[in-house]
Amino acid sequence: MELLCPAGNLSSLKTALENGADAIYIGLKNATNARHFAGLNFTDKKLEQAVGLVKASGKKLHLAINTFADADNWQCWQKTVDLAASLDVDALIISDLSVLAYASQTYPDLELHLSVQASATNSEAINYYQQNFNVKRVVLPRVLSIHQVKQLARTTSVELEVFAFGSLCIMAEGRCHLSSYLTGESPNMNGVCSPAKHVRWQETPNGLESRLNDILIDVYQPDEAAGYPTLCKGRFEVGDDKYHVLEEPTSLNSMSLLPELMAMGIAAVKIEGRQRSNAYVKSVTSTWRQAIDRCTNNTEFTIEPQWEQELAAISEGAQTTLGAYHKKWQ
Length: 330
Known about the structure:
Blueprint: E1 2-6, H1 10-18, E2 23-26, H2 44-56, E3 60-65, H3 74-87, E4 91-94, H4 97-106, E5 112-114, H5 123-133, E6 137-139, H6 146-155, E7 159-167, H7 178-183, H8 187-190, E8 199-204, E9 207-212, E10 215-220, E11 235-238, E12 241-244, E13 251-253, H9 258-264, E14 268-271, H10 278-297, H11 305-313, E15 320-321
Parallel strand pairs: 1-2, 1-14, 2-3, 3-4, 4-5, 5-6, 6-7, 7-14, 13-15
Antiparallel strand pairs: 7-13, 8-9, 9-10, 11-12
Helix pairs in contact: 1-2, 1-10
């Protein structure tokens, strides 16, 4: 099972390599990257350096070209595929049908992975992408129960990749309209969710208020951990109750499912967080490396307390969840 880790710059990439990643995924500083955060990501020259570093270590580099192409600037997606092919990037993570068609027809030997943003949730959809674009791997959306993941693994020969750890968002996989509605910046096209320039913190007699574009997202008491103000994880009044109406401020952690995922033949577990710090990359990569090695070599898999503590410390709200893997609703 491959451990696929995030990197927002060369420093994070080196950290992931040093701490046990089997593969690393990155994006460019352009509109092809759904995590197009200011100050992060790779120029063409940095991509070339990243390819050299990863190949020298015997690992793999995946490039995310995971936005839906702009009708007025389609050449940007085309040139990014051309660049990746010329540098011999190990795999491209693509969501757009036109980009998949171009990559598969122009570079038939290029390894293509279907992005989570394409939302392929059944075997017929997965097989369609495999048959028409020679997709080798599909990244499953974080909306499936573990039972549904198991069923898919039984019914398709295409490699499956699942999210293992990191932040959760409301069930639209990159097409969140809430942040776009409040800030005017689309998470899909601008690579941001709750842009920092719209975030405000203020101490008030009611507590620490967090706001996004002047909309009150939450109020924290002195003994509460304050989370980054995203609209889907705000606390709002509904009738007589005030609670997290849409989503809890917590991080996905599927480590307890590792034996099941391995038994299914899941090809890779993916760590979310290309916008996160070196310390995050180091902590989550080394912890998951130990867990995968333990699970591979032992029939009796147990989670070490220090692993839980390590992951809780870097989780949103200092708490974790199995997310949709364990939910009965769909």
